[in-house]
Amino acid sequence: MHDSFGGIEGRTVAGAPFTAQVVSTSTQTLSDGSHIARNINATVARDGAGRTYRQQTMESLGPVSAGGAKTVIFLRDPVAHTSHVLSPDTKTAMLSHMPQRMMRGRGNADAAKATADEIESIGTKALSIQADVKDPASADTVVKTALEAFGKVDILVNNAGVTRDDLIMRMSEEAWREVLETNLFGAFWMTKAVTRPMLKARAGRIVNITSVSGQAGQMGQANYSSAKAGLIGLTKATARELASRGITVNAVAPGFVLTELTKDLPEALQSELIARTPLGRFGTVEEIADTVAFLVSDEAQYITGQVLAVDGGLVMM
Known about the structure:
- Helix content is 33%, strand content 29%.
- It is of the alpha/beta class.
- An 8-stranded mixed beta sheet has the order 8-7-6-5-9-10-11-12, with helices on both faces. A 4-stranded antiparallel beta sheet has the order 1-4-3-2.
- Strand 3 (35-46) and strand 4 (51-64) form a beta hairpin.
- Helix 2 (136-150) packs parallel to helix 3 and helix 3 runs parallel beside helix 5 (222-242).
- The radius of gyration is 19 Å and the shape is globular.
């Protein structure tokens, strides 16, 4: 049996046009409570305007013993602090388990609403709210909203972040606090908020986006390096606390990736960074997303407390 769909994936990403092929396997819960496995063959493309599209075909492989939909809180946008909550009952993609989404942004309500509208245009429920990861009450509200809307939270991806680079002797107290409170404290508040429902469910996946700066340090980034190093410690401590309930906690450490935070770097600096990377290029946001997708998949259920570097060989530890 084959079925397919096509449409807007729901995001605009800066960068050159590309086309990529993605092959994966997912499970789907049927109305009678049984489960089937499916091979997913997807083509993901970005056009010249930065709009991403996804076309996929799914092939039924037969019954499996377990499966079901996922609810995900995904702190995605490092500039706007945007996150997604994707919910229980779907049949599509990697994200086949993740159809209903809650867009969460701070200071970027229009972008969040536009993304939610695009998601709904392909038949998926989407919500949008405004919140701030630095505020513990906001984190609690996000999780409470997800639970009220979808009944559970299966996956949390902490990826909200900012930079305020400067040398230590010139760094302001405000720049120090802003980066630590967003990049590290925000991840802690979100993790704390999802811990109770995940413990109750005896299942869950948490992925923290750290950085090579947190592993090796970076001149002019004492605040950012400290926050990302702290995030590695938080990952390992949380993994030990939650492992007995079947909850895994891992981190992804990207190298130099072209994002909203890095795209405006001077050309000479970009060339220098590429020269320092053994694979000789910047990473892509899609490569980071693919790594996160692996860590939240069933294939990674025996991996916890680890830092997976996606850096082109920049930091070999």
